[in-house]
From TrEMBL:
Residue stretches making up the DEAD-box RNA helicase Q domain: 2-30
Helicase ATP-binding domain location: 33-82
Motif Q motif: positions: 2-30
Gene Ontology terms for molecular function: ATP binding; hydrolase activity; nucleic acid binding; RNA helicase activity
PROSITE patterns: HELICASE_ATP_BIND_1 (PS51192), Q_MOTIF (PS51195)
Protein name: RNA helicase
PANTHER family: ATP-DEPENDENT RNA HELICASE RHLE-RELATED, RNA HELICASE
GO cellular component terms listed in the entry, alphabetical order: cytosol
Amino acid sequence: MADFASLGLSDWLVKQCKQLGVNKPTPVQEHCIPAILEGRDCMGCAKTGSGKTAAFVLPVVQKLSEDPYGIFCLVLTPTRSV
């Protein structure tokens, strides 16, 4: 299994993850983070609690830290059905 640094996240973001107790990426994060950092479109599907939010938030935050005016991100989430 990869670590966050090997996925391309900046050292400061890896450090923040560790401080929050998030030490290893989940499968959805492993697949989505590198693609998003490369600027590719990405669609992830995984169970609740699998780390989907961090899978798109971490690379978006990194890109915003590099150029706050140069990123466009659209996140679509379905509503929960009862």
